[in-house]
TrEMBL record:
Name used for this protein in its record: Protein yippee-like
Source superkingdom: Eukaryota
Keyword Metal-binding: yes
GO molecular function: metal ion binding
Keyword Zinc listed: yes
One Pfam family matching this protein: Yippee-Mis18
Keyword annotations of the record: Metal-binding, Zinc
Assigned protein family: Belongs to the yippee family.
Domain spans labelled Yippee: 23-120
């Protein structure tokens, strides 16, 4: 990969291999593991580019700048989430929800379905 002119290239992080042998969601662009399938809270969410998954946690991601964003359910303080392996924007992290009925989203991730690959790690019997 050619050197980047942005100063962020020096801080590129290493992808951590996590959850070996467990069903995961991985980055569709570089295959870095992003989350365990067990961390899925809901598939009934919308992202910028289509359906989204609300997840309890994520790995191999870095946060963008925190900002107030007007979403379908009101104003939330969020930060975009990027894959550490390829810098693809995967969704966002909910820092704060203004509406008390939306507080359950705080400290959770919205990951866009189209940016993920579902890895089931099935094995076939001989």
């Amino acid at each position: 990969m050619p050197p980047s002119s942005s100063s962020g290239s020096e801080t590129k992080q290493q992808v951590v291999q996590a959850y070996d042998g467990h069903p995961t969601y991985s980055c569709s662009k570089c295959s870095a593991v992003i989350s365990l399938q067990d961390e899925l809270i809901s598939k009934a969410f919308s992202g910028r580019d289509g359906r989204g998954f609300l997840m309890q946690s994520a790995v191999n991601v870095k946060m963008g700048k925190r900002e107030d964003r007007s979403l379908m359910t009101g104003v939330h303080t969020v930060a975009d989430v990027f894959c550490v392996g390829c810098d693809e924007r995967l969704g966002w992290y909910y820092h704060k929800a203004a509406d008390p009925s939306q507080k359950y989203k705080e400290a959770k991730y919205l990951l866009e379905r189209e940016k993920l690959i579902k890895e089931n790690n099935w094995t076939l019997d001989d």
